[in-house]
Amino acid sequence: MRSRTLKLVLAAVLTSVMSTGCMLSRAVDRAFVGMTVKRPANVDRKVTGIFLLPLTFAIDVATFPIQAILVAILGDNFPFNDPPSALDMTGMTSLEGNPQFEKLDPATKQTAVAELDALVKSGQLDANSALALTEDGHWVVVRVTDEARQQLIARAAQTPATQQVCAR
After folding, report:
1. Alpha helices (H) in the chain, listed in sequence order
2. Sequence-separated (6 or more) residues with CB below 8 Å from residue 9
3. Backbone angles phi and psi of 119, in degrees to 5
4. Would the CA dihedral through 134, 136, 137, 142 be positive or negative?
């Protein structure tokens, strides 16, 4: 009897952890666990999230018809309509055509691309960060004020698309 109960609890926990597609489960995942997002809101509360997931899974199953109607009307990402991140690598345009990048030799270009990827993934960049590529192929992060950022965005909008590194 005890083995059967343990198996049932384990199956319930595994099912709820693997099904973070419903609204409450997604909310707990975004807040505590972080399986579908890079950084959960409460990074230090993973155990709390794991214990909440079976409860939210049960509520999600009970409210499934309502959630299905909301998804059909409001879209797949409801209620998590996050704007695309400006630092998302999918928003990057090709560095080819950038005058500073074109000056680099092939090995240095690979290093520069890897360094840029590492900078983006490290979380060091925010909306008020500007990147400059040095002549030796390394990136320099420059913090700018909100006013300077708006000026950079306005200037980037006036430059040809082949010279822009990050597209917004």
Report:
1. 2-18, 23-28, 46-62, 64-74, 99-102, 106-122, 146-158
2. none
3. -65, -45
4. negative
Give the whole-angstrom CA distance, residue 62 versus residue 90: 36
**Cα–Cα distance between 95 and 93 in angstroms, integer?**
6
Per-residue pLDDT of the chain (168 residues; tens, 9 = 90+): 788 888 877 776 666 556 656 788 888 888 888 777 777 778 778 888 888 888 888 888 888 888 888 888 887 777 776 555 444 444 455 576 777 788 888 888 888 888 888 888 887 777 778 788 888 888 888 888 888 878 877 887 776 554 444 443
Q: Which two tokens stand for residue 153?
A: 């965005």
Q: Is the pTM of this model over 0.85?
A: no
What distance in Å separates the CA atoms of residue 93 and residue 166, rounded to the nearest whole number?
A: 6
Q: Residue 70 corresponds to which tokens in the numbers above?
A: 């909301």
Whether a cis peptide bond, with omega within 30° of 0, leads into 79 is yes
